Amino acid sequence: MDHSDPAGRPAVPHGQVRGWRGTTACRVVGITYRQLDYWARTGLLEPSIRRANGSGSNRLYSFRDIVVLNVIKRLLDAGVSLQNIRKAVDALRSRSVKDLVEITLMSDGTTVYECRSAAEVIDLLRGGQGVFGIAVRTTVTDVMGRLAALPGEAPAPAPAPLHPPEQTHVRHIGPVPGRRPTAS
């Protein structure tokens, strides 16, 4: 998970993870909770901090997740099919925020192209492939501004074990698979 601003500086204090609930992500991106839920359930974009674990649990989205959600929304608004958006998101999935700000996504409404320089953008435009572009750096800055006034939260700590380690006893009942019983 990457929680840094466009310059690569941490957006939250070092060592702390901050996330935003689905309702906040929806408000920042401009989508419905139903869309967000569908995208998470179908694997388009699952929250990287905390996934839903049954009824009543809340997903927790990272800053990077919300940037990618914003890109998804903008591609949908431009008429790109969800199938092609999935391909683009797969290509962006492992990228840090620092890497994402260097990318401009271009599309002709069908295919999504990744450009890393002005020359690549110009080449696409000359070839007629680019109809619109998304400068991810601008998206990152926009999302940072919108999230600044909204409450974030740290993920809940991992639950404590049921028994302290020194009191935990493992007992085998029956033969261990792959082992022959020994005579006592």
Describe the structure.
Helix content is 38%, strand content 9%. It has a 3-stranded antiparallel β-sheet, with helices on both faces. A two-stranded antiparallel sheet has the order 1-2. The longest helix has 15 residues, at 63-77. It is globular and about 50 Å long. It has one domain (20-156): Multidrug-efflux Transporter Regulator, Chain: A, Domain 2. By secondary structure, the protein is mainly alpha-helical. The protein has helices spanning 22-29, 33-41, 63-77, 82-92, 97-100, 118-127, 136-148; strands at residues 20-21, 60-61, 104-107, 112-115, 132-135. Mean pLDDT is 77; it is low at 1-14 and 160-177. The N and C termini lie far apart (53 Å). Strand 3 and strand 4 form a beta hairpin. The protein contains 7 helices and 5 strands, in the order βααβαααββαβα. 26% of the residues are buried.
In short:
With 184 residues, the chain is mostly helical. It has 7 helices and 5 strands; from the N terminus they run E-H-H-E-H-H-H-E-E-H-E-H. The chain has one domain (20-156): Multidrug-efflux Transporter Regulator, Chain: A, Domain 2.
Instruction: State the major sheet.
Output: 3 strands, antiparallel
Question: What structural class results from the helix and strand content?
Answer: mainly alpha
Number of helices: 7
The third-level CATH topology is: Multidrug-efflux Transporter Regulator, Chain: A, Domain 2
- β-sheet strand percentage: 5-15%
CATH 2nd-level architecture: Orthogonal Bundle
Mean pLDDT, nearest integer? 77
How would you write the strand order of the largest sheet? 4-3-5
List how many beta strands DSSP finds.
5
Secondary-structure element order, as H and E? EHHEHHHEEHEH
Distance between the termini: 53 Å
Just give the CATH class: Mainly Alpha
